[in-house]
Amino acid sequence: MTAGEPAPLSNSIAVVGGGVIGLSLAWRLAQSGWRVTVFDQSKTGGEASWAAAGMLAPGGEYDEDSPALGFGLASRSLYHSFIEELQKETGSPVDFQENGALELAYSAGELTALEEKAARQQTLGIPSKALDVVRVRAFWPRIRHEGLQGARFYPEDAIVNPREMTGALRAACVALGVKFSETVRVTSVRIEAERTEIHTDGGSPILFEAAVIAAGAWSSGIEVTGVPPIPESKPIKGHLIGYHQPEQTCSTIVRHRDVYALQRANGLLIVGASVQDVGWDRTLQSDIIQHLCNAAAAIFPHLAETTPTEVWTGFRPGGTLEVRAWHSPRLWLAYGHYRNGILLAPWTAGKLAEEINATLGKR
Questions:
Q1: What is the pTM of this model?
Q2: Sheet of 55-56, strands arranged across
Q3: From CA 258, how far away is CA 239, in angstroms rounded?
Q4: Domains of the chain
Q5: 60 and 103 in contact (C-beta within 8 Å)?
Q6: Per-residue pLDDT tens over the stretch 242-287
């Protein structure tokens, strides 16, 4: 910035992306005194966060040591207080169930693989316990018991309703003065020594002290100048189906092979999910939907006579997990969470807010 050029508003920061990651970070930054503006090309919480099932399930995600494991366990440990604080600040209820997960084995080979995985996880800090068929019958009466060889229960897995969570996060942000620029696409971000320029398809550049790119699968589609190119992100498509149930069908997460089921407090029983690297194709594919329907009926026999009431797709953010400054204190990255954006939101927001405050000065 040279003499005579406009300066950004003091204590200002742009968050590009209004999903659960961007909103969680905006909330934490606003709590620290930052003047935050959230940009989203559609409506906040309307893409991957809206489509997500909402599992908080290290037991289903990690079975070997890695940095991602540590991040996931740390974030899961934050969730109870995170949701409690969010509900207290907003008065908005958020469906959060610390109900555990049941993983099923319908053959001797599946049971052996399940027990081997559980043994690896035990050494990593992910507890589970074996359940026999009698106990599964008693506590999960709607599950298919024919052919069941055994199961394991993961007591620390949980679920949250991402749609309610993002709604509450937006309300918390509004209460703290966060500004929202929705249905506005950020086309480029220019990084300079003492400021960041946000360019949109809606008008003149807007100046900030710093910016965070948290646009999920869309992140690397934003042109960034003044620093090296940011790491690639890409969409990984997933299909999900939902059944509105008149009663509690699924009291915990239930997993079998590559399929999971969970039920929200509003009765919606969700079954998912496919994994496809097919670009930005939103087409609902009948063969994949039928596969999920068959898998749902294999776990819950009564669903064989039921048609899904909702079918949808979403784009997980593929690529490497990026939660850090990018070659400048004026640019920060928060994307690449893949299947664990909901799980990792409290950790991501806390880590980046702390580092931004330490680097640029706590507000």
A1: 0.95
A2: 55-56, 158-160, 96-97
A3: 13
A4: 12-91+162-233+319-360 (3.50.50.60), 98-156+235-316 (3.30.9.10)
A5: yes
A6: 999 988 899 999 999 999 999 999 999 999 999 999 999 999 999 9
